[in-house]
Amino acid sequence: PGCFKIGNTGGMLDNILASKLYRPGSVGYVSRSGGMSNELNNIVARTTNGVYEGVAIGGDMYPGSTFIDHILRYEATPDIKLIVFLGEVGGTEEYSICEAIRQGRITKPIVGWCIGTCATMFDSDVQFGHAGASAGSELETASAKNLALIDAGVIVPTSFDALDNSIESTYRDLVDKGVIVPLEEAPPPTVPMDYSWARELGIIRKPASFMSTICDERGDELVYAGMPITQVIQENLGIGGVLSLLWFQRRLPAYACKFIEMCLMVTADHGPAVSGAHNTIVCARAAKDLVSSLTSGLLTIGERFGGALDAAAKQFSQAYDSSTSPMDFVNNTRREHKLIMGIGHRVKSINNPDKRTEILKDFAKAEFPATPLIDYALEVEKITTNKKANLILNVDGFIGVAFVDLFRGCGCFTAEEANEYISIGSLNGIFVLGRSMGFIGHYLDQKRLKQGLYRHPWDDITYVLPEQFNEEQS
User: Fold this and answer.
1) Closest to 149 measured CA to CA, from 86, 239, 55
2) Which residues pair with 86 in a beta bridge?
């Protein structure tokens, strides 16, 4: 209240069409109430050829414009043939209309009504909804103003319910006299249905920005790949079971879930010297936050560090599926100057085996239905370790080939699905997820120890600079 506002009127598009507000008619109206202006749109559309212009001046005691301001404009507008106004109890503005009619300043027919005649039924003054809708004297009552309007020549109905009849009869009289010549009703312009309304009616659907097949949080409880979270907890699926639902959209056998958890445990960390842990530690000591430090470590993962799982799975399975013998596989990669992914270790060797690989191998041999690719990779290892003792099947390579055997042998995947999960990076995801635990551990360790900014010692760097500055190159 008391503020200047600009807004739309007419309601939804279907109501605008029904009220014929898409083209001009012959009626100009002015109303105190903005809400009642929508009702006037409806009444005028049903009883005449429609609205030319409509204004709601508001119910404040001191509105920004008055009835007479707009009615005089309508008087001077040639296309407006009939004027309608809707006043209310309170104020004396309606009397200025009476005076203008007597002075001959208004000659067009006017249909008007002042709302609030029921105020006389109360013993005391009544404050209606608007700030100005209260009669401070008999002169301001709706009944007194309606009588004054009738005396001035305004067409005033017996009640608001009869307003439409008064407007219609006045309009018909103007048509009969030829003052208004109704035009043939043109079809309304094609207006698209409001999107929200059409969707609510089920006529259209919004194209989704994302598709998700693994998780749904919209119901009573969280659902992982069709399994409610309560069932996940009650059946003690564990991390391996949750990962099987979210990554592979199915519940894998218990031995498969156990193997997943074992892989996460053995890849969780491998000391502070490896590149990922080193980066995480350096960032933590540079006062970076956990996410930044973790990301720094994760960005080192690739073919040279921890990212060989997918590549090993692809390389070994392609050789096995093409019936290439282990010896030919080794010789072919050497001739092509390629590395065998998953083979080799900087520290471990055939004489100093990696216990992590041994643990996983023992489990797979005991629990997996079949291990053809593991067996193939172990035959390759025999050949490579004959050449050099540290060219062993490392933990990355073993996890890679073991997952191929798991996918192909557990009965939960088709051959196409197994190959797809290998090709889209799911196996490297095992290393990323597992090693994230270790990186976070290193971050927390540095913060707990309150370690300062790290600077690499200069005596651990080999500086190779020209012996003498070459001026000709400057």
Assistant:
1) 86
2) 31, 113
pLDDT score of 116 more than 70: yes
Residue 229 has pLDDT above 60, yes or no: yes
Maximum pairwise Cα distance, the chain: 120
Can you read off the two tokens belonging to residue 394? 């490392």
CB atoms near residue 211 (< 10 Å):
5
Q: Tell me how far CA of residue 287 lies from CA of 283, 290, 440, 441, 453, in angstroms.
A: 7, 9, 14, 16, 8
Q: List own/partner pairs for 151-157 with CB under 8 A and 24 or more apart.
A: 151/98, 152/97, 152/98, 152/99, 152/101, 152/102, 153/101, 153/110, 154/97, 154/98, 154/101, 154/110, 154/111, 154/112, 155/109, 155/110, 155/111, 155/112, 156/111, 156/112, 156/113, 157/111, 157/113
Task: Quote the distance between the C-alpha of residue 287 and its chain's center.
Answer: 34
**What sign for the dihedral angle of Cα 137, 141, 146, 147?**
negative
- Dist. CA 334–CA 468, nearest whole Å: 42
User: Would you state the structure tokens that stand for residue 397, as one six-digit string?
Assistant: 């390579």
What is the residue whose two structure tokens read 């190959």? 419
Instruction: Name the token pair of 320.
Output: 């096995």
Report in angstroms the alpha-carbon separations of 22 from 12, 48, 223, 240, 424.
12, 15, 49, 63, 56
Q: Which residues contact 280 (CB under 8 A, 6 or more apart)?
A: 293, 294, 296, 297, 439, 442, 443
Q: What is the pLDDT of residues 57-100, one digit of tens each?
A: 887 777 788 999 999 999 999 999 999 999 888 788 889 999 99
C-alpha R_g of the chain: 43
Query: Is the distance from CB of 68 to CB of 100 less than 8 angstroms?
Result: yes
Between strands 227-228 and 223-224, the pairing is: antiparallel
339's CB contacts (< 8 A; 6+ apart) are 333
Give dist(CA 288, CA 277) in Å, integer: 14
Q: 6-23: per-residue pLDDT in tens? A: 556 656 677 788 888 888
Distance CA 157, CA 115 (A): 11
Considering the candidates 130, 270, 345, 442, report the single residue annotated as catalytic: 130
Fill in the amino acid letter for 464.
V
Q: Are 377 and 316 in contact (CB under 8 A)?
A: yes
Phi-psi region of 352 (alpha: psi -120 to 50; beta: other; left: phi over 0): beta
| Residue 456 a catalytic site member | no
